[in-house]
Write a structure and sequence with these properties.
The complex is a heterodimer. By secondary structure, chain A is mostly helical. Chain A contains five helices and no strands. Chain B has one domain (2-503). Chain B has 20 helices and no strands. Classes of the chains: A mainly alpha, B mainly alpha.
């Protein structure tokens, strides 16, 4: 398959740019592929009327992933760099702001851990306020008002509009 | 004619007060999200999938169809008023559209885009009504081996023909196939890590929301533009007699490019919009205006874009194969009602399909009526505070995933796959092959199993049907071409050329 000729990756001064993070991506693919193959070996034969064994597809998918990982590593070494996705609000001229992403993930994790206990009406609001804050909003009172309106509003919207009772958590009986 | 009766029946169903309400809601939402940066029709449909738990299938699909067409309209507004198009399908529109806007002709650019979209959408939907039932009638006769081959073709085409890097396309595809393996559908738990919550596989709704919404929001967060965008103010869209004269032929030619490409398994809107742009530049009497804001360069590609959106519905409704991200989510919506998608859809659910087709005409007309007067309002949407926009996306994405089964575990899956979505955007992996792989991977295995069960294990059954043989020959030919191309041209010349043409 054609890989390296897709993009002209050698800059004008002749120096090769190697995106080292892509080796990490290749390693990730190899690990996933390896695990898929390993998992397939733990499966036993299917039923007598099952012409395609349960492990057949995993073997194929896993091995192809490993091959793709190798190809990606080779392409990377040859100077193949990815074209990151653009968008209206995406400014690729600035370096990536990974701390912001980590903070968002932390807020998200808090939602996962608290949702059973506090319920969506509370954690949803926390999620909105937290992520808006991380993304640079500094109008806390308005953020909380919007967040609470959204989470309580969606709770009642799901309850009366869609007939789905989202677990209320700590507010059980209050809502 | 038979189809005409069925279509009239569809109109009757689609024009009830309730369904009309959902159609209007759909085109409104669709246009709004098309205009909103960072959020496209596929993400919107993914976020709205919980609706299908309680709204009837006809109403939900009518609304989704409105969002689908509305998103195309909204996307063109953004690319004309901002120089950064949100969807790949409106990249070409931005070339001339934004130049027109800068010359003070934003109103005319929006008008030719809107009216061209209406013309193309209407003709495209008409062609869809003509072709889809007969295609379905043929496909329904095919056996499992042919269906297996067709799914293989769809996977291959979406991966190898679209996008800039085939290696990355295949990586995305096989990651998707891996996600599709999870679960116990074959009788044994695969890739479940012994977790009973994974025994039924990963819900595709969660995968779609994670990849489209979480991945996108995190990616934007990592690169959030700190400078404000310059948005060109716009008044009421209108066109002069001369603009009409210069627009109507590009509309029709754009439609002719767009529909067939949309209907092909490797469709998409990128190729036809680009072809339309190049053609109009060649044919125009005002070719000197190209690059400085030629109206033909907006009219043609916009029509191609919308006609291809209609064309995409041919494989979706007639074969059950999605070829774009938005179509993939629509397929999920249909399946979430327990409706089996595929060529038999026209026979088993005629009311639903024809109401959907009728609603496409209605939605298209509503879009024209609503959007010409509302353009200045939509332009204001571009100024929404970004923290609220992306916090809102994360909020509704979490709600959507949580509402699948009210398990925090689903939110954890959402985060993990969302991080995968972030990494994919960082490493330039296309999203479409992954989502198509998740959806079609299990179907591929199912068709293979059924084929071999019928033939009692004789593998030659796979090439026992003429359609299957043709499809395999086609895939083989494409592979030969790809490998040949890859080996013969070690140094790239074309990409640079394309850039020249685009910025010329």
């Amino acid at each position: 398959m054609s890989t390296t000729h897709e993009k002209d990756t050698t800059p004008r001064d002749g120096l090769r740019v190697v995106d080292k993070a892509q080796y990490g991506q290749a390693a990730f693919l190899a690990v996933v592929g390896g695990y898929v193959v390993y998992d397939a070996t733990t499966l036993s034969d299917g039923f007598a009327d099952q012409p395609v064994q349960p492990y057949a597809f995993p073997y194929v998918v896993g091995s192809v992933l490993i091959v793709l990982a190798v190809m990606l590593a080779i392409a990377t070494a040859r100077g193949d760099v990815p074209v990151a996705e653009e968008g209206e609000d995406v400014d690729l001229t600035q370096p990536s702001d990974w701390p912001t992403v980590l903070k968002l993930v932390a807020v998200f994790l808090a939602n996962i851990l608290l949702i059973d206990w506090l319920g969506w009406a509370i954690t949803g609001a926390l999620l909105f306020v937290g992520t808006a804050y991380v993304l640079g909003s500094r109008t806390l009172i308005r953020d909380v008002a919007v967040g609470v309106a959204l989470s309580v509003g969606t709770w009642y919207g799901f309850y009366s509009g869609l007939g789905l009772a989202i677990p209320a958590g700590i507010l059980d009986g209050v809502l | 004619m038979d189809s005409l009766d069925l279509l009239l029946g569809g109109f009757q169903q689609a024009l009830t007060i309730e369904n009309l309400f959902y159609a209007i809601l759909g085109v409104f939402l669709g246009t709004a999200v098309g205009v909103l940066p960072g959020i496209g029709p596929a993400m919107t449909l993914a976020l709205l999938l919980p609706i299908t738990y309680s709204v009837g299938p006809d109403s939900a699909l009518i609304m989704f169809a409105g969002i689908y067409y509305g998103g195309m309209y909204g996307g063109s507004t953004t690319s004309i008023l901002l120089n950064t198009p949100g969807e790949s399908s409106s990249v070409v529109t931005a070339i001339e559209g934004n130049k027109m806007a800068k010359k003070g002709r934003a109103a005319q650019a929006l008008a030719t885009a809107a009216i061209g979209s209406f013309v193309a959408g209407t003709i495209g939907t008409l062609l869809l009504v003509l072709f889809a039932p007969s295609v379905a009638g043929q496909v329904v006769k095919l056996g499992n081996p042919s269906n297996f081959a067709l799914i293989l073709l769809a996977l291959f085409a979406v991966t190898a023909v679209l996008g800039t890097s085939r290696l990355r396309g295949f990586i995305a595809l096989f990651l998707g196939l891996t996600i599709g393996l999870v679960g116990g559908q074959t009788g044994q738990a695969r890739l479940t890590f012994g977790n009973p919550l994974l025994a039924d596989g990963i819900d595709i709704v969660v995968v779609a929301v994670a990849i489209f919404a979480i991945g996108e929001a995190l990616w934007v967060a990592a690169h959030l533009r700190r400078r404000p965008l310059d948005i060109i103010p716009v008044g009421q869209p209108w066109m002069s007699r001369e603009d009409w004269g210069r627009s109507w032929k590009p509309w029709l030619r754009g439609t002719a490019f767009g529909f067939p490409f949309g209907a092909l398994p490797a469709g998409g809107a990128e190729i036809p919009t680009f072809l339309s742009y190049v053609t109009e530049r060649k044919l125009s009497k005002h070719s000197d205006e190209f690059g400085k804001g030629a109206i033909e360069g907006v009219a043609g590609p916009e029509a191609a874009n919308n006609a291809s959106a209609a064309g995409t519905l041919v494989p979706l409704l007639a074969i059950g194969l999605p070829t774009t991200a938005t179509a993939a989510i629509m397929l999920l919506a249909i399946q979430s009602y327990g409706i089996e998608t595929g060529p038999q859809l026209f026979d088993t659910e005629p009311d639903l399909v024809w109401a959907l087709l009728a609603s496409l005409f209605i939605g298209n007309t509503l879009l024209l009526l609503l959007n010409l007067p509302l353009a200045p309002l939509w332009a204001k949407l571009l100024q929404i505070p970004r923290p609220y926009l992306y916090a809102g996306i994360l909020f509704f994405a979490s709600l959507g995933a949580y509402s699948v089964s009210f398990q925090p575990f689903d939110l954890a899956i959402l985060l993990v796959i969302g991080l995968l979505g972030l990494a994919m955007r960082r490493f330039g992996l296309p999203v479409l092959p992954l989502i198509i792989g998740v959806i079609l991977g299990p179907k591929l295995e199912e068709q293979l199993t059924t084929s071999l069960q019928i033939s009692s294990g004789d593998i030659s059954t796979l090439w026992s049907e003429p359609v299957a043989v043709i499809v395999y020959a086609f895939i083989a030919l494409a592979l030969v071409l790809i490998v040949g191309n890859g080996l013969r041209t070690p140094k790239p010349v074309e990409p640079a050329d394309d850039k020249e043409e685009v910025s010329a």
